[in-house]
Amino acid sequence: MRTPLLDTVPTRKSGLALFPAVIVAALLVLQAGAAASPPLREQGHQDDTVILPGASARCGFPIYGRFEGDFNFTVFYKNGQIEREVDTFPSFKVTVFAPSTGKSYTSASPAVLHTTYTNGAAIGSTAIAALTGLFEKIDGVDMDGGRFVFDAVVVDYDAAGVPLIRFVREISSVGPDLDAPIRFQRCAAMMP
Question: Are 109 and 90 in contact (CB under 8 A)?
Fold first, then answer.
């Protein structure tokens, strides 16, 4: 026999049955609100040969640098604004050569650049960039590598929307440093 009370008041058992459904609904709402924008990824290969003006001026003859390797840029967003970036250069190489002396050297230069942006990486905003890796080993002369931290400023964006920065000043450096400016060390390696 049914009583009017049982028809209108849910039992404790039926309330517990609804509890998981309420939790699932709440998690879905919270998850939707916390979802971040997917990162922007750019991959490619660089292969540029340029004259090295400092080393060339120091030696009095043309010295060139070839910078070649793969790069991976990943830009992370928070609340729709660029927050940070991680760039990797896993197979990067630097070749310095002087055609007039026939001298050259090639250095593996794998590196990672971690950049933290302010103001959503707007042009003119500041950033902190930490570069870690082997930058250049000059055979028989010197080596430069470790971890360098720089104040930087956003100067532009590439075609994919990745911020371009300019280092403003070095904040810290840990690891083997060159004993003299790089133009002097490159020149020394290219002398006949």
Answer: no
Token pair 């002087």 is at which residue?
Answer: 98
- Assess if residue 135 is contained within a domain: yes
Reported as a single tens digit per residue, the pLDDT across 102-144 is 999 999 999 999 999 999 999 999 999 999 999 999 988 888 9
Provide the number of structural domains found in the chain. 1
Q: Which of 85, 128, 84, 137 is nearest to 110 (CA)?
A: 137
DSSP H/E element including 163 = strand 163-174
What's the token pair of residue 51?
């004259």
Range of the domain at 60: 38-190
**pLDDT of residue 86 exceeding 80:** yes
Residue 17 host element (H or E): helix 12-34
Answer for the pair 90, 73: CB distance below 8 angstroms, yes or no: no
Classify 120 as helix, strand or coil. Answer: helix
